[in-house]
């Protein structure tokens, strides 16, 4: 027990924990949710624990292909020539990467002029957690990630060399639609299809335990070569980290097995997209669920609410009144909205209901579940979401409802006689609503963050409009 306690990383003992290492790997999360980092000399790393080290502010000034944004937001320090941010290692994030010879790994947070960088999702989410902690609450979250897997192509077909140059050459000569799925056909919860790639399938689960991105459930999903991982619930800021790290894990193992995992929301025409459902609840500081009601409420406005506490009702009202203005944080790309189309297992309207998987918010509560598991499942996000932005958006929206004691604005979907409100169905519509002066997003996030993220999405919209496609 004493040895276990000693192994909890702190600034005081981290040097000892790295005694036998000569290098460490560090990474921060950019505005597309992608890990950007490098390997550092151990001594250089240890010397930066207190005061950090320089990391170019272009991290939040370009897209996933390193193309600079057309609009120049202040939050990237573009006016200062993309000078350095200060990257601060998060000692509590320490883990080892088992598929890279157990190299030590740390996540980063970023500061500029001794203040948090407005676009740093890890800092944004942590600040929300601290805010609710002041009132005696924590948030617990779980995320379910679906993703499609393809056989990695090469210049000469599908060989095992895995050379990225060959992959690029193959894709230049072949349409993406010619990619071959890891397995054929559609068979959810299959016990046999994973056996065609059983080493890859089981390694993902096992490495997740070692890498602290623990999986609670792991199975095939709806679509050829589609897997789904339900990550084990944890405090919300830790969950966001785990989503980003799980994607790193899967992509890294894919390279070893000549497999390309794809976390796009809608990789293939005619098939359902890949979701990133988020489960969220509040607890007190001792971990007791505060969404659960001590006894059923016979005077509940709707039967679906009988087992949901007042705090839970306010939180739900916060979600319902904010989500339409926060859509770019749940569906951040042009491709995201290809998934949000009717009849493809994804919500297109704003609604809620007890155990209603057809609604955008599913309430999970007694009598179906145990009181301690009372929570909301938000079914809008896809696998391409930025985990820190999306989870911060839900926590911020729900907490706004609690603070304002908002009333739930609409009845459960199955009880409605009118048509539910349509969610924004394209990125340009979503961004316009997100950045509007009257947007609820501006009540939850800083203006600097709104402007930065809007600029990053407007950059994508412009590139899309310029593109000439087969269509």
Automatic annotation (TrEMBL):
Domain GS beta-grasp: 19-114
Residues annotated as domain GS catalytic: 121-471
PROSITE patterns xrefs: GS_BETA_GRASP, GS_CATALYTIC
Keywords of this entry: ATP-binding, Ligase, Nucleotide-binding
GO MF terms, alphabetically ordered: ATP binding; glutamine synthetase activity
Signal peptide (UniProt feature, chain positions): none
Gene3D superfamilies found in the cross-reference section: Glutamine synthetase, N-terminal domain, Glutamine synthetase/guanido kinase, catalytic domain
One protein family per Pfam: Gln-synt_C
GO biological process: biogenic amine metabolic process; glutamine biosynthetic process
Family: Belongs to the glutamine synthetase family.
Protein name: Glutamine synthetase
């Amino acid at each position: 027990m004493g040895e276990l306690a000693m192994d909890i990383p702190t600034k005081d003992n981290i040097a000892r924990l790295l005694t036998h290492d000569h290098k460490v790997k560090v990474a921060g999360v950019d505005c597309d949710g992608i890990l950007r980092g490098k390997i550092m000399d151990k001594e250089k790393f240890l010397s930066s624990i207190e005061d950090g080290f320089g990391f170019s502010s272009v991290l939040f000034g370009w897209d996933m292909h390193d193309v600079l944004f057309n609009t120049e937001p202040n939050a990237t320090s573009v006016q200062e020539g993309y000078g350095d941010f200060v990257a601060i290692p998060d000692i509590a994030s320490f883990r080892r990467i088992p598929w890279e010879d157990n190299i030590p790994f740390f996540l980063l947070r970023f500061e500029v002029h001794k203040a948090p960088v407005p676009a740093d999702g890890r800092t944004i989410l942590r600040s929300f957690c601290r805010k609710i902690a002041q009132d005696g609450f924590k948030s617990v979250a779980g995320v379910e990630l679906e993703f499609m897997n393809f056989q990695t192509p090469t210049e000469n077909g599908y060989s095992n060399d895995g050379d990225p140059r060959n992959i690029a050459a193959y894709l230049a000569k072949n349409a993406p639609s010619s990619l071959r799925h890891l397995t054929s056909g559609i068979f959810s919860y299959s016990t046999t299809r994973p056996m065609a790639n059983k080493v890859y399938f089981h390694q993902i689960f096992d490495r997740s335990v070692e890498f602290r991105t623990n999986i609670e459930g792991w199975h095939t999903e709806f679509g050829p070569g589609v897997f789904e991982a339900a990550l084990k619930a944890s405090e919300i800021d830790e969950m966001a980290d785990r989503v980003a790290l799980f994607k790193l894990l899967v992509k890294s193992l894919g390279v070893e097995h000549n497999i390309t995992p794809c976390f796009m929301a809608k990789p293939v025409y005619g098939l359902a997209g890949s979701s990133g459902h988020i489960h969220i609840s509040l607890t007190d500081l001792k971990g007791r669920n505060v969404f659960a009601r001590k006894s059923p409420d016979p005077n509940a406005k709707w039967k679906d609410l009988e087992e949901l506490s007042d705090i839970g009702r306010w939180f739900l009202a916060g979600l319902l009144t904010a989500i339409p203005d926060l859509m770019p944080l749940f569906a951040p790309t042009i491709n995201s909205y290809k998934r949000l189309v009717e009849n493809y297992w994804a919500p297109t309207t704003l609604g809620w209901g007890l155990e209603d998987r057809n609604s955008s918010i599913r309430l999970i509560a007694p009598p179906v579940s145990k009181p301690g598991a009372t929570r909301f499942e938000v079914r809008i996000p896809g696998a391409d979401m930025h985990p820190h932005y999306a989870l911060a958006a839900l926590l911020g929206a729900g907490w706004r409802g609690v603070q304002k004691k908002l009333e739930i604005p609409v009845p459960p979907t199955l009880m409605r006689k009118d048509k539910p409100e349509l969610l924004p169905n394209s990125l340009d519509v979503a961004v316009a609503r997100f950045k509007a002066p009257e947007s609820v997003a501006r009540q939850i996030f800083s203006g600097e963050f709104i402007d930065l993220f809007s600029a990053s999405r407007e950059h994508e919209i412009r590139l899309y409009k310029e593109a000439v496609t087969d269509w």
